[in-house]
Amino acid sequence: MRLGTVISVAGPLVIAKDMNTAKIYDMVTVSDKHLIGEIIEMRGDKASIQVYEETSMLGPGEPVYGEGEPLSVELGPGLMESMFDGIQRPLDIMMKKSGDFINRGIQVTSLNRSAKWNFEPCLKPGDSVSHGDIIGTVQENSIVQHKIMIPKGIEGTIKSILQGEYTIEETVAIVEKKDGTEVSVCMLQKWPVRRGRPFHKKKMPERPLVSGQRVIDTFFPVAKGGTACVPGPFGSGKTVVQHQIAKWADVDIVVYVGCGERGNEMTDVLNEFPELIDPKTGQSLMKRTVLIANTSNMPVAAREASIYTGIAIAEYYRDMGYSVALMADSSSRWAEALREMSGRLEEMPGEEGYPAYLGSRLAEFYERAGEVVCLGKDKRIGTLTVMAAVSPPGGDLSEPVTQATLRIVKVFWGLDSSLAYARHFPAINWLTSYSLYSSNIMSWLDKNVDVNYSTCQREALALLQEESRLNDIVRLVGYDSLSHEDQLKLEIAKSLREDFLQQNAFVDEDSYTPLKKQFKMLSTILKFYVLSKQALQNGIYLKDILDLPVRDKLGRIKEIPENNLEKYEELQEIMAQEIKELIQERGSRG
User: Fold this and answer.
1) In a shared domain, residues 217 and 289
2) Is residue 330 very low, low, confident or very high in pLDDT (cuts 50, 70, 90)?
3) pTM surpassing 0.70?
4) CATH code at 475?
């Protein structure tokens, strides 16, 4: 349906007149080339259209078409293992139609309309249903069971329900509403990306998202259903941290959004993810992953839409009762797209040229995370954890995007380029990072892993903070000016950094560490500290303590396999015995 006529073009911003029937956020197609766009501003009968494709050779007089629907994602079987662009167009299908470069105006459906899926009903005729109720399941692949839910606006009684192989558009159930009208239900749903999916109730996140990364799980944990940001300068390892979490985190579904990243970096992601082996299933990690790629050379407008596309898909799987992790890399590129579109709209700029509504847009995005009681009679629990990278120019954490993000999220993993250059990975700085979920999660760890977990965590963090203070003194007056006890603190802090916090992603035993092994490693290092302090109090020289044979074994504690945790108990006994013998030898001499 023709809506209006183009009167001006400024990059991705197109102004059209005679748009009286249009609404803000409606999807339109511009010109007979069918360039996809979205209305982002209305002034009288003039509409400002954000075009998601290249607008060269576009000029005044071109027609604008629309159906009066907002930007929406298609939800249904076939999402898993897919790679989409920022507005949910499948990259593999577009490559077959247009080659290595995306042609303008290419028309493709997001989900395959011809593929047949085996629908297994879980309700029967006569059962009452409403929004969110699961009526059946589809085995989407060997790992993910896709749950078919009643769409919004349908409530009534199932009149008939089918079983067998159907396409996503074919009717699998008929619902009779209270007024007697009948509604067909298929496996395909559509949902506006800018609107959060409804739920019954949001809960306070308390369970940790176990990533196997010791600095994260023990010191700065994120809750399932929580929010976290990973700010850091170029080369500090933001993408590596997100890849590690995507591979190892105890979630059912991963949605990875590459928002404005370099093309070669996204190529690596697209090539590597299918080759990564899921440690839970032994199959490809892609079988439970959805990838959304919008590289820096793609139209900037689609970058702004990409994170909404990703979070709408993530919410859909959350509503099935799954635990979902959304990785956005990076929100700074998304904010730059906002800034560019705001400038073209001639809006009043805020700090550093970003629009004044930057903070509210970020908040709208992050608040869609959470642990929720989903709609439906079974009151299933679903979680959506959002982790976004932030790329501040020059590593300046005082810039607006980072500061606006920190006011919203509850976990801050501050990456440090000096740690990355020293080959310390993950390069998360333990002095600047924090987690506001720590108190709740530490209570959970005390109950479910070990009663002393939170005590050990506090002692270790205190030692690392004390190391920073002592290093300042050493730089001023030298190492020898410290007392033996302070020198011991530096040695233990070094052990915490090198033997606990530092991990090697290329070594299987070290790439992932379960919670029980993390506690055993930490408690073993702290046990040596306690025993060493006792030895100092008994007149033992620090050099003699540090020369004990057990020190070599302590430096290899990360090599102990997770199925042999009793080795840590044996190591602690050896420590106690060697220090006891040292004290006895001192007593016999003196």
Assistant:
1) yes
2) confident
3) yes
4) 1.10.1140.10
Q: Please check the confidence at residue 296 and state whether its pLDDT lies above 80.
A: no
Q: Are 326 and 385 in the same domain? A: yes
- What contacts 152, CB < 8 A, 6 or more positions away? 131, 198
pLDDT tens digits, 104-134: 888 899 999 999 999 999 999 999 999 999 9
* Residues near 537 by beta carbon (within 8 Å), at least 6 away in sequence: none
Please state the length of the chain.
Answer: 590
State which residues form the domain around 385: 75-97+199-436
Euclidean distance between CA atoms 182 and 62, whole angstroms: 42
- List the CATH number of the domain containing 62: 2.40.30.20
Number of domains the chain contains? 4
192: its two tokens: 């506006």
Contact 383, 224 (CB under 8 A): yes
* 355 and 288 inside one domain: yes
481, with CB counted inside 10 A (0-12, 13-18, 19+), is exposed
Helix, strand, coil tally for the chain in percent (to 5): 40, 25, 35
Angle formed at CA 512 by CA 508 and CA 516, multiple of 5 degrees: 120
Predicted confidence (pLDDT) per residue in 81-108, tens digit = 999 988 899 988 888 888 777 788 888 9
At 132, which CATH number? 2.40.50.100
Contact assessment for residue 60 and residue 8, using Cβ atoms and an 8 Å cutoff:
yes
